[in-house]
Task: structure prediction
Amino acid sequence: MVADVVVGAGASLLGAVVGAGVAWAIAARGRDRQYKLEDRSELLVRTLLEHERWKLRTFRTIKYHVAGFEDNQLRQILIRAGAIKFEDASGIEVWGLLNRNLDVLEREVGTLHN
Result:
C-alpha cells in the first residue's frame, strides 16, 4: 500500500516535470521566432534606409515595403534600426538613419545648439 502511494507520487512528479519541460520548450520556440522576426525586420529597414540614392524615406514608402505591422510597431522597428524621424517641408513624416543624416539635424532651424 505504501509502495502504491510512492509509485503514484513519483508518477505525478514525473508528469509535472515533463509537462513543465514541454511548456518551456514551446515558450522558448515562440520567443525565438519573435526575436527572429524583430531582427529581420530591423535588418530590412536598415537595408532600405542605407540605399545610396535616398538618405530619407517617407513613412508611407517604408510601410509599403515592410508590411504587416501597425504604425507604432513599425516606428519602434525604425528606432531599433537606428533611424530618426523628420518632417519634410509639406509636413510628411520621413525617416532616415541617424548616422547618414547628422547634417540634416544641424540644418534644422533652432536645433544647432540643442
The chain has one domain: 2-107. The radius of gyration is 25 Å. Strands lie at 57-58, 83-87, 93-97. The first strand starts at residue 57 and ends at 58.
